[in-house]
Fold this protein.
Amino acid sequence: MLQHVQSLILQILSGRIASPTFTSSSLLHYLTQTNLNLNSTHVHLYEAIINAHVQSQLPEQALFYFTQMIGKGLVSGPNTFNNLLGFLIKSNWFEKAWCFFNETKGKVELDVYSFGIMIKGCCEAGDLNRGFELLVQLEGMGWSPNVVIYTTLIDGCCKNGDIELAKKLFCKMGELGLVANQYTYTVLINGFFKKGLKKDGFELYEEMKHNGVFPNLYTYNCMINEYCSDGRTSRAFELFDEMRERGVVCNVVTYNTLIGGLCREKRVWEAERLVDQMKSVGISANLVTFNMLIDGFCKVGKLDKASSLFDQLKSVGQSPTLVTYNVLVAGFSRAGNLVHVADLVREMEERGIFPSKVTYTILIDAVVRSGDMEKAFQIYSSMEKAGLVPDVYTYGVLIHGLCMKGNMKEASKLFKSMIEKHLEPNDVIYNTIILGYCKEGSSYRALRLLKEMSENRLVPNVATYSSTIVVLCNDGKWTEAEVLLKAMIESGLKPSISIYNMISRAKNDT
């Protein structure tokens, strides 16, 4: 009967049964009236109706019937509660799920999975404190957290940047006799890599295999991504071969990661062949695949091929995004083809995609490279009028252009204005403006900015140190030049022989 009830409710909710009098509530009322003294039947009727509403993606109504059931003193089993709780979390109703869990936990039967679902919701919402509160409650009830709960918390800690706590939880699992599975190892390995702890990540991967836990698709994808990011594409392909030999089926993420690795190494034709291989095993190239290939061909100057891929992308029913257009705009900008850049911007706007901060910065960089600073500032003004706030990179491009033109007065004004707007100049901007001052022979200003860099814990590059030492020597300030030479060596940079000779000559001339 219960299956029939749930089927009827689903038909009512989908509109296949349409009647003002025959509703979920009327059906429930009729069935509970005909089974007046059968509480267990009433519970099952409510559960069927609640599950039907969950299946129909109707959270408010599902909650209404669950609350009504509890209000009548009926005690539901954990399955329906867990089903509804999981649905609320998947519907991005975390706060509602939290309240529902806490308000009903003394009135319904819970199990370890109930806590696991809520802990997962807390971790996904970035609220680890509540997640650990639930862990304490779970243990206080005399229940033991399972591997899934620990894996969820470890993943939450990693995503929150607390790798030390993740490691402690991993060790505690072992102490409790819980055996880490593929997912546990993978989330912690990924957490290590995200924190830049490559050695720890690789060691844990070896420990995982040593303990007889075989890597799964996500482990392999994580490892392949790290090798590709590290420029060790050949090692990534060794893992790619290994996973296929072991029967682990690759997905589009696996292929995209390898394609991205090849494109970063400018091995774009190999990347394109890998796309063909991907298609041969039934995996379609997605937008990410196209964007990486287009970017790869743009960066090696093969703009005709990039344009051909762009047309192919549209012909297979994919819609170009802002990222796609930015990649193409950057490619044609680097080539100095500003006419095609204008056509691309016009096309993206016709598609309802408006230039972002990144797009404007690329456009400014293009006209700066062509030497048209007036046009660059016009685009900068348009950017501000569009309500976009220039970032450090936008300022960096403009300052670079002014310095190349020898317009240090305007470069200095722009440098000060970004500081007033609480934007911290990066090492590239400092190096650029210091070199600009060196070109005009202003050793005082160059040295002042070098000291400022040091105070901001930024490291000047070889060119900045060398140029400032040269201009100091030209001004006869060899003592300051020697101090700077010492700082250069201490920062791990190697001065050229000509710098030593320059200081020696400056000493002899005084």
